[in-house]
Design brief:
The complex is a heterodimer of chains A (423) and B (96). In chain A, 20% of the residues lie in helices and 22% in strands. With 423 residues, chain A is an alpha+beta fold. The chains are: A alpha+beta (423), B mainly alpha (96).
Amino acid sequence: MSNVYNWQLGRPMDYPYDAAFPREQFAFVFNLNRCIGCQSCTMACKSTWTFSKGQEYMWWNNVETKPYGGYPAHWDVKTLDLLEKANPGGQSWGGTPQNAKAPYGQFKGQTVFEAAKHNVSPEGAQKALGYLPTDEEWAGANRFEDHPTGAPKGERDRYFQRPESLPQHKTWFFYLARLCNHCSYPACLAACPRSAIYKRPEDGIVLIDQERCRGYRKCMEACPYKKSLYRGTTRTSEKCVACYPRVEGRDPDGGGLPMQTRCMSACIGHIRLQGLVELNADGTWKENRQHPLYYLVHVAKVALPLYPQFGTEPNGYYIPPRWVPLPYLRQMFGPGVDAAIERYSVPDRELLAVLQLFGKDRRICFRYEIKQGPKVFETNIRGKKFEMFNDTVIGYGRDGKEIARIAVEEPVHVRPAQHANSI
Amino acid sequence: MPKHEVDSEDPMELMGVTLATHEDTLTPMAECFIEEFMRMRFNPEQVLELFKNPDYIGPHMVWEQRGEGFVRQLIADSFAQWGRAANHESRVTNNA
């Protein structure tokens, strides 16, 4: 075991390999306040990467209804349960939030790597505490999550058929869109007995070498997010490849510039913003005040990692849904939740402008500038003074040229009915 | 294919988890969706269509459980709160 620094936990931790960081890291922010569960992202991914034989139950990108659902079923509850059993009552946070090296304070509990050391079976200790989901848990993505009705055995589901045959959920819920987090300390990579999983030095994308993989499924067992999946027809594991040809700028649509993945580009709710961030030698994010992801994660601090306590340092960040009870969100996104929701509920001038960058252009934004506009409105929102300015945010691509220009009060242009679908 | 077909009658197949609270937050959720899509320049009628569409299950659940009148009122209140006129073409200069 090596000792590596995990800035999301605010402390060093054990990891089976030495730390090695890419030149840039693939990362994304999802605004869960906007997700309406339309599954456009899911289908964009499915139709690009997992439409072949043996991939029928494979969803590299999925949207699940929390807290009821999960793909595979109960993935997070089961991993949290394993950690709780390994360290009863000890999975807590402490310390005070500091700079970019410890923005959420310090995690006092055990990560999946630390807890695994004590989980010794006849096969030896696991590299990361985990479990292998059953076929049934993989097979029913979204089943009963929103539609408490089922089809007769052997027939296709007809979700919208009424009436429901089971009680409907009447309490709070939200949609959680997920894909591989391309972690800085991937548990899948740590657990692979074939060293078939690697993290690319240029962009931090985590890939499975299909030539080396023999389908032992140790990655599936170890990944706490359960984003490595087994394909029976090839007898290998597969996972999200972060649409790497697009990120490399090889999609002709991007004119040579790095583009966001298919799932990001297809989002109709504009909840997604993907980018590449620069890292310091210790793996913390290099200060880059005008990078939209740096701003959202380290300046505004409205975007938080998913289950940071797992210890893999995931590179997917979420703006938590503001209507969900805080204890649940604290467990899911860590102690930064309270401040994130408070800030997001009454967004300031800069945040309102940066949020406009979400979903506006398929090319990756590396820098933004804000051109100040006139004040157009002021009021009190939930007891706080709110001023709205019609600023314009300008996004720039890898080559420093402008790729997007959006006003906070962006005008709407409606196509006439006879040209509704023409391009 | 899995070894066992999923049986809709099997209670173990339910996505059942214990919730920390039974708090009903449908109204703040609906408010949030209205504000988000308002910021994306949807007008009140377009936002209402979102709630009426059964494909958008979250908003639609609110429309089903609380009724269209409730949703219409919430949309009107939210637009007014953030200074948007009902016709969405002009901004209300009401400092509440």
